[in-house]
Amino acid sequence: xxxxxxxxxxxxxxxxxxxxxxxxxxxxxxxxxxxxxxxxxxxxxxxxxxxxxxxxxxxxxxxxxxxxxxxxxxxxxxxxxxxxxxxxxxxxxxxxxxxxxxxxxxxxxxxxxxxxxxxxxxxxxxxxxxxxxxxxxxxxxxxxxxxxxxxxxxxxxxxxxxxxx
Length: 165
Fold this sequence. Notes:
With about 160 residues, the chain is an alpha+beta fold. The protein is built from 4 helices and 4 strands; from the N terminus they run αααββββα. It folds into 2 domains: about 1-40; about 45-160. Helices cover about 45% and strands about 10% of the residues. The radius of gyration is 26 Å and the shape is elongated. The mean pLDDT is about 80.
């Protein structure tokens, strides 16, 4: 009887340890999946993706138009940007853009004028409108990089670029 009790005790402990380990693995997988989807779908992340798409579309536009970038965002739709959502910052709770005739009016991004493919890659090109995000802006550069920059630093950089500093 004592031997039976030791065997049951041993298997019960092994089964209990297996259940605890299995629960930890399941919890870890669920945590990592939730955490990854939160990062990928955050408004700031989607906004940076939108700006990267707009810069890429401008480069393609310039290849087809003698090295000059489009003057208006609406020039990029539908040939270079098919989704109207690309013109909207998801952090802004404003009027949603469903009318392709109002792209320039409702677009939540701005672009520096007078740039072309021969411009320095470090120049600010496409960026959030003021107030899209608290204390910072997502900024796309001519070379295609996109960064989040604190509002004060962004204003300094833009003034310097425009020769106002």
